Write the structure tokens for this entry.
Amino acid sequence: MLDVLTTDVLVIGGGAAGTNAALKAADLGVEVVMVVKGLLGKSGCSVFASHLPYYDATTEQKRADRYRYAVRYYNHYLTDQEHVRRMGQYMRTEFFEELERLGFYVRRDDDGALLPSSNRVPVAAAYKQGATGIVLMNSRRRAVLRLGLPVHEECAATSLLVDQGRVVGATVLDYRRGRLFTVLAKSTVLATGHADSLATRSSATREQSADGLAMAIRAGAEVANLESCWWHVSDMRAPRAWMRMHLYPNPLLGTDQSSRLYNNIGEMFYEQISHSPGSSAPYVEQIRRLCLEVEAGRANWDGNYVSGYDHIPSETILTFQHQAKVWKKLGLDVAKDRLECGITWHMRQGGIDLDTETMQTRLPGLYVAGGLGCHYLGGVGPVSYDGKVAGTNAAQTAHLASAPVLPEAVVAAEEARLLGYLCADANGPRPIQVKTKIRAIMWELGYVKNEAKLEAARDALRELRQRELSSMRLESTSRNWNTGWLDALDVASMLDACEAICRSGLLRKESRGAFYREDYPFIDNDNWLCKVILSRVGEDNWRVRYEPYATPHLKPDKGREPFFEADY
Amino acid sequence: MDIVRAKVFRFDPEVDHAPRFETFEVPYVPQMRVLDVLDYIHETLAQDIGYRWFCGVQKCGCCALRVNGRELLACWEPAQVDMVIEPLKHVPLVRDLVVDRGPFEDDLMRLETWLQRSKPHPGFPEPLFHRAMVPAIEALKCLACLACQSACPVLEDDGNTGFIGPAPLVQLAQFALDPRDGADRGRTAAIEGGIFQCISCYKCQEVCPTEIPLVDGIIEPLKRKAIASAPEKAAHTRAFLDIVEERGYIDPVQLVLKTRGLAALTRPGWALRLLLRRKVDPRKSVFPKRHKGVAQVRKLFEKMRGRRS
Amino acid sequence: MKLAYYPGCSSQSTCLELGASMAQVAPRLGLDLIALESASCTGSREIRAANRDLFLALNARILAQAGALDLPLMTVCNTCTLNLLDTRKALAEDSETRSRIGDVLGELGLVYRPEVEIDHFLWVLLERVGAGRLRELIVRPLSGLKVAAFYGCHLIRPQHHYGFADAREAHMIEDLADILGCESIDYIGRTECCGFHTSAESEKVAVGLAGRYVRSASECGAHTLVTPCPLCHTVLDAFQGQMSEQLKTNLDLPVLHLPQLVGLALGLKPADLELSRHAVTVELGID
């Protein structure tokens, strides 16, 4: 029998969403336990945040620009517009207030005035643009630990416990010690984020392998819009570790310029200020333009195009940009040199479906906060709002809920599954090798999708599942920091998530935002302004339904338009 | 270079009797980082190798280790053709290249490394000039990677000196140097931090991946506060200042006597041994020749008295 | 060549042999040292920690005195060197600091001179005297003498003064030893810290750290250590007895100052170089 921890609210995930959920739940006096696969405030993608959306509400125009950005450019209308309103209100009135109270320094100028970027949808940052996430997450980490909240780090949640249709906690592998345990909770908040290392080139961190998504799918939760996954374009081509090194294309502090992308004949084919003036997160337009370059032979998906800041006074870059250190490290000059880039699988827009007023999913007891949800792409500010709502509601429910009963059979089955991977007795594929194959399949699927490619990817994943999942073998069965064992669990999660992503892609018969199907190369708001919702029963039984989005405040201007002519 | 030879420290306390080194040959790829070498080993040669990393791009600070005796971030530094790769020192080992950050985190709790405002937050945006934050910003560059902690010689042999090490002190400095903080960080640096045990060797600064000026920008400002807040811990410093003000130069015999007091006489220290050996002329200590510059020196002391920086 | 000379505090107190051997060796090297007799202590690590402006003023005064002579300034101690370099850098980088300190010096009738060159004796040897001239002056090549260089932190770190991304790259003392005919020994501790700067309170840390290095040098076959810093010398030499006690082994490895090593090669006698003052007897078979 595994050790059981009992608590009111279990928070899985230690990024901007998870930490805020834990803090708000704790504020309401309930017991909180955090389970973090990496290290609180260090792993995951929150540390990568370069800047924060600066909600300047001083004029109606600015409010409108901001709203339009959030709904049209950041979420392509696949969002709950009321949620965007509420979240905007939070960003305007609470987010910066709380952050600064904790001590976070929002960059000022020499006269003491706040120093946001100068574009239509401005951003503000920490002492340097690019360092924001590091500082913000350090603050959050300290805030959580100060309260004495139990935080179980380097502990991977492996499954959600479901008892009579209610989520009552999770099983966890402490992979430092190789110890399995269970957390029994009245409410569970899943906040595992929107970045997963699912393709050969991916900006996700080591431990991000879609566990949150996979756990939810296995528990029968509904997931929506999984096909919508953003790519980064200005990530470095090499070295391999640096495929996460983002040469931020966003609006910059201290200048009205933004970085540029150049093809292999030196032509500039993208800059935010010209090509996406209404968007401060211009990745969708970046990759659309890159696609044209690739198709014309003027760039590749994994190289042969460059990014640079050389058109901007280098002093401005050196003063405000954290990434200037990359040039310095390579012995290059940011005033002259451009760096070769390649695309990376970056962040998932879709995710688990939920009620944005409470962050509750359709599974009682299960809340979701942040990028893992399907309701809003992400960003440390917006997900902090989610965390607040989820944490508050999870705590309130916990007050009212009855103590859950441990579903022993479920726990036993999960224990058997996990221990089943801890096997070194025969020659089988190593989990890391299977991971590599999954990533190769998703990389091959790539940005330009069509029915044949989606089916091929889906089938290849199924084949891997059938042939290799149960025959994986580890190098050793040591319990002490067994990377191979963790890799095996990751493989299982990745197979679940990637298969769902492919299935969802086959269902949406249009292109939108980051999702491009060359067999349906148009945005189709007449038919497809809706959620594509999947859920799985058992191993293999998929249910599909569609739910149109209400557009009470902002409607798309066109019903149907060619994807490459749209600006969102 | 075609091949990188990596000799990697291996020790799994659960199954190994003793630490050992395992050598791997890895095909070199241009611009390869140390982390890329470890990833290759993990993916093809030794899938159970224990190493920690998350971001790969110098944001999380979790991949610090030693290569050829030198602390660095595996994700940030290029691979070298011959590498001996070992875990950080002065931090307990979990396995292979993975260390236990627990004691460091406990240190941070003891130092109370969060903002303790001297006045309540007046609302966002609070009045604050960028210039006022510049000293703290040096400390904000810290990734808590523990490279400096590993490099610090005072922490060898379990330390036992009461010195907490540079890494927790940088985190403390984030608030000690923040104009909004009102806690007595100087006292903390002196007592919980043992800051006067720093030997000023600059090894921490040498290895810091984000180039924090650890000595000038962190240790010395903290010492300044410590001298003011906990003068009883700074006997040596106060004695030094007094002697130089009086004589214009430092007399080590006087320094030891003033610092250690009568204890210096009962337990002969090095200064007294030097006396025996004729290394030191006792007459110079007892009957010092008047230093030619002493008048000007005393004037400088007078003018600068009470200044901090 | 004429050089302003800053003797520092140690060469006039705990390392009298350093001052004496410097006085013997300088003329033979063609160095005419003009001592800055009213120069104060540079403040070691203590004054700069306690009061940065006072530290800057004391050091700027030394640089002003050298500047008044219009001569480059030679030092014989690592920490003094670093203090002077740091002062020059601080005043160069911040005009407000420069004018504040300049004003204070002005009240003493002194003018700060930012262009004063600061050279430790080691650099004077290698760059001003030069390998060629030095070879010509050698009377007694020290062949067979195995020398272990102990650099001392403040002549090799931090990088912004000394240029070493990794201080282990430092090679000046080995270069000098080579010119003098010695064989250089590699060992653990060459570029490590002797721990001097906490030794006024307790020599425990210094003994613990340096003991290991002295033992390593000895085990690697060194006949002597050589160091450019009298603070390191004090630890390596005067504390060696305690190191032997702690390590339960008889270390007995002599420690030479740079001018003593050079002086031996120039034909000077041990008595001229005041080797008898050392805590660890210097018996190198050179008379």
